[in-house]
Amino acid sequence: MSQSSLSLFVSFLQCRIHTSVPACKEPGTFGGRLTHSQRKAASAFIQVPQDYFDAEPTLGHSDEGELRVNLAEAQKDEAADVKAYEQLKAAKEDEIVAGHEQTETKTQELADADEKLAQSKEDLDDTKAFLAEGEAFLMMLKEMVPALMLSGRNVRKLASLRWKLALRHLLC
Predict the structure, then answer these.
(1) How far does CA 161 lie from the centroid of its chain?
(2) Residue 121: pLDDT band by 50, 70, 90 thresholds?
């Protein structure tokens, strides 16, 4: 903004603030009038020195050197942070791969354990069936022995019967 247009703008604002003339006829501006707090804020704005808007930002040589040093340090820190991030990322990816491998290993171990359990149950069922057959055979012998013991001749029959039953049991 040039000096003359800024002066005109400030004059316009001062006029609007200190008069009761509506500032704006737009809808939604509450009748276009400024409240006391709005006038106070606008007055504070208007009292800003004129040279504030015209001032050029300047940096001293020492400030410029300090900025360069700070920039260099910030770039070094950023490079170190990027390197640390990459290392952390690689370590986490390695952990993920190790976790997947461990999951696969544990899944295989579980499958092997399930298979072994099924085989053990089958073996247990077979053993129980064999035990039941042996007990039935023993009961049959206990019933036959008293009847055969009546005569000496029956002792030989009992021995041959035992051999026959034993052979039959082993062959079945």
Answers:
(1) 74
(2) very high
Range of the structural domain that residue 13 is part of:
1-57
3-state helix, strand, coil in the chain (%, to 5): 85, 0, 15
Q: Is the dihedral of CA 94, 96, 99, 104 positive or negative?
A: negative
pLDDT bracket for residue 26 (50, 70, 90) = very low
| Domains: count for the chain | 1
What is the percentage of the chain residues whose pLDDT exceeds 90?
Answer: 37
- Mean per-residue pLDDT for 3-13? 60
Q: Is residue 7 included in any domain, yes or no?
A: yes
Q: Quick one: DSSP state of residue 47?
A: T
Residue 151 domain flag: no
* Residues 84, 85, 89: CA angle, nearest 5 degrees: 120
Is 44 inside a domain boundary? yes
- How far apart are alpha carbons 1 and 6 in whole angstroms? 6
Would residue 23 count as lying in a domain? yes
Sequence letter at residue 164: K
Average pLDDT, the chain: 77
